[in-house]
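USER: Study each token:
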Amino acid sequence: MLKIADELAIIILQNDFLQTGLRHRFFNLSSLAETLKPALERRLKKDLNTNTVLMALSRYQRKNFPTPSKTPLEFTAKTLGEYKVIPNLFVSTFIKNELTSKELTAWKKFIQEHEGQIWVSEEDKILSIVTEVGFLEEMSHTVSTKPKQVQTGLTGLLLSTPLALKARTELLYNLLWNLSLQGAELAHLHVTAKHIFLAVPQKQFHLLIA
């Protein structure tokens, strides 16, 4: 019989961002429980009470990360290492289904053929795509499904990350911490083994890199 705690642990262990946030007490656990509830319900094939998820999440954090980590290190442009600033971006989000996936694949191919840059993330049946604003018109021609949201006027920061998992998660934590301290809005986050990509409103980008 599947247990909430077991499925919750699987979700967290597969996600560096969740591990980092829980370790450093970055999350509001009530909000995180609401976010994770649909994924747990699909895995367990039953409805769950948010408070039940919250209790399981709280137990997991106390057991695996009993002591809050120290305050993050000072973060400036000098600590970034190799990075690239990418202006004039937009993010669009879609509910994933067969038709949308097919059309978005065609749009992604068009962007790549025109040497454009694109980042695609998927979470909880929601697809988020970030690319250059010059491809916005082509999206309206290629994708028949109306996006849930479109946000223009973004600037992206692409970082080459350390290979070691601990160093990579610490860098991610420091980035998010400093965004929070500066009051900047995080429009998109995409993390791989080699890169961290995040996008913020163009007017707020100066808050990210001092």
